[in-house]
Amino acid sequence: MFSCTKKEDTNPNEITITQGGVFIVNEGNFSSANSSLSYFYPSNSEVQNNLFYKVNNVPLGDVAQSITINEDRVYIVINNSGIVYGINRKTLEFEGKISGLASPREMIIVNENKAYISDLISKEITIVNHASWEVIDKIDLGKSSDCMVKTGNKVMAANWSAYNQTTINNTIMVINSDTDKLIDSIIVGIEPNSMIIDKNNFLWVLCSGGFMNNEIPTLWKINTSNLEIEKQFSFSSINQSPDKLCINSNGDTLYFLNNGIYSMSIFDLTLPEDAIISEDDKNYYSLGIDPLTNDIYVSDAIDYNQNGIVYRYNSIGNYISSNGVGIIPGSFGFNY
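Now predict its structure.
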């Protein structure tokens, strides 16, 4: 089934995390505390699994949501455990944690000491000192937050979920990262699930249209200087659910999931009609684009209970390799 052999019995003393590989964060099942960390080596197409446990002799936690790499440290957000773990980038040894969070989703580095953590339940973003593990303050948003991107002194935070709020979840909230204040908001489609900044500093926002197919899914192009909408693309069916918007290393080609993998130029005037990689009988769950090689990484969650698979393709969709990883492989961290 797989093109190479998994290294399940790796001795912790033999684990060597080299640059140029890919961290794979496996979410695990809700309330089962079976999330895990894998590492993929593109040079030989091999993977090492369950590394956090093997190195630190403790489980990673309950729903490993996302990963952030900064200098010599890797941060892994554990959603249902309400914590962020920090581990050494080379040895994977535990270095510290940020705790007391409600339902953390993503962490974004603001500067050498400050980071923001978004939250599914709380209507505030948590400001932390990522060097000392301390919570500094909160930013009141009035809505929950999920994915975040930064451009200049602006941090854009998406209100993806309508949970625990009475307003519609169709907003991108704009924070001044110098003052840590909410300064503006942008109305987009329902359920903005992923965002990127392109080479011309435009913000692209992908919206699924809602869990209950509330409206047609949309893709938005936004001017980050004046926060005005430059273009709105509408998908062909209300039953579609596009997700996981990514961009290539040049910042000029978008990729996303929509029952297959699609790509489009940032200069295209219409959405792509055909997938560059068909989903076939797989269950594509997450997507990542290598920022150096532009290789495409896509995970197959299968049935959300057994171990998943990560497939690697080149930038035009030709198959390279596949590897078995952990349960529900949900995010990628490119180690450059």
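The chain is about 0% helix and 50% strand.
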